[in-house]
Write a structure and sequence with these properties.
Elements lengths: L7 H7 L9 E3 L8 E3 L4 E6 L5 E6 L5 E7 L7 H11 L3 E9 L2 E12 L2 E12 L4 E10 L3 H13 L1 E2 L10 H6 L6 E8 L2 E8 L2 H17 L7 H19 L1 H11 L6 H13 L15 H5 L6 H14 L4 E6 L4 E7 L6 E4 L2 E6 L22 E3 L3
Length: 384
């Protein structure tokens, strides 16, 4: 998978002209795929000359954070690294071990007095694969700001990526709170006349809804912030990442059933598009107003953005190039795919994409409402 990753030093250079960064930032080849998908608006306050310690401050909520990378020989376990880092801040941590991406990890909550202020926060530490070291993330806020900042700090830590597979699986915080269940529940769906039986883990719906609700709370703080567009992109990116692994079995079973009867990739995508067009349209009665993707497979009603996103997940699993299109002006969302079939297209990153309308039955790829045919009013959200 081709992907461009700027080093943290390149990002620091950008800060000369930009007051805050709000993107996924890598830490250089020495640390493999180590990346953090930051909530929008973090600003660098300080760093060491080795490029292994960074102090950050959010510009949208009163949250401070530290990112620290240690050599593998420094600490025997992530728990040791996390406790040592927190004690250096004068914190009293409550730490628990767990496993994420087949790596040792530790998570903690803590309280401390920093700069004469009583603060509370969270810490996370994970072994970087291939002996590249240990990464520690710490975030805190004033104790009286915890209700406002709680989800933001957990989202910051859940944005950690340590390898290629991290782009396709729930983040470490969600994985800690909702470990993969061995219990499965059967799911029956019908696509293109094919009755398909697949399954989900018994806690996939609950875990996914946690991620959706948490990320919506984070998104809400950007309502009047200039970083709202970048925050919206990350909102969908975090849900895509969390959902991808949960729907992996479903994607496999769907592909095996319908691909043999598909004329080509676009015909395969059309069968999925027609399936979503026939779903029950229903606004989610939650704060986020977004149906989690596992819930959709279980028959819950769905809105345009959840339908468009489930197409992005499933088509990506089927090795198709799919992006999410979102329009705040039209209050609408669609999926777009690369295809050599005729139809109306938008040019995204130099490639032509056919739009897929998920809420009007009978439409094929490349057909949309002419009133919505203005690319300047659509945001293209990619996931890698």
């Amino acid at each position: 998978m081709a992907r461009t990753r700027a080093s943290i030093f390149c990002a620091i250079l950008l800060l000369i002209s930009l007051p805050a960064f709000s993107q996924r930032l890598g830490f250089g080849e020495n640390y493999g795929d180590l990346t953090i998908d930051f909530p929008a608006g973090f600003q660098l306050q300080d760093s060491n000359s080795q490029g292994t310690a960074f102090q950050l401050q959010s510009t949208v909520v009163p949250v401070s954070a530290v990112v620290r990378i240690y050599e593998s020989s420094r600490y025997a376990t992530p728990t040791d690294a996390l406790n040592s880092s927190l004690k250096a801040l004068g914190a009293t941590p409550e730490t628990e071990d767990f496993s994420w991406r087949n790596q040792n990890a530790a998570i903690a909550n803590f309280s401390a007095a920093i700069n004469r202020q009583q603060v509370t926060g969270y810490g996370l530490s994970v072994t970087i694969p291939n002996g590249a070291g240990t990464v520690v993330l710490i975030a805190w806020c004033a104790q009286n700001q915890l209700p406002r900042c709680h989800n933001y700090m957990l989202s910051f830590m859940d944005g950690l990526i340590i390898d290629e597979g991290s782009y396709f699986e729930a983040g470490p915080v969600t994985s800690y709170l909702y470990p993969k269940s061995d219990d499965k529940i059967d799911v029956d769906i019908e696509i293109a006349g094919k009755k398909i039986r697949t399954n989900l883990r018994s806690n996939d719906k609950e875990a996914s809804e946690y991620t959706v609700d948490r990320e919506y709370q984070v998104l809400s703080v950007y309502a009047k912030d200039r970083n709202w567009q970048t925050a919206l992109e990350r909102y969908y990116r975090m849900i895509f990442r969390d959902s991808y692994g949960r729907l992996m079995q479903a994607g496999f079973d769907i592909f095996n059933e319908i691909y043999p009867d598909a004329a080509d990739d676009t015909d395969l995508a059309q069968k999925l598009l027609t399936w979503t067009q026939g779903m029950k349209y229903e606004r989610e009665r939650t704060t986020s107003d977004f149906t989690s993707l596992p819930a959709m497979l279980l028959g819950d009603g769905s809105d345009c953005d959840s339908r468009a996103l489930i197409l992005c997940v499933l088509l990506t699993q089927m090795n198709q190039d799919a992006v999410l299109l979102v329009s705040p002006q039209f209050s609408h969302a669609m999926t777009a795919i690369t295809s050599d079939h005729p139809g109306h297209s938008f040019k995204i990153n130099g490639k032509d994409y056919l739009m897929g309308e998920t809420t009007a039955q009978g439409l094929t790829w490349g057909k949309i409402d002419e009133k919505q045919d203005d690319q300047s009013k659509w945001m293209a959200i990619t996931f890698f």
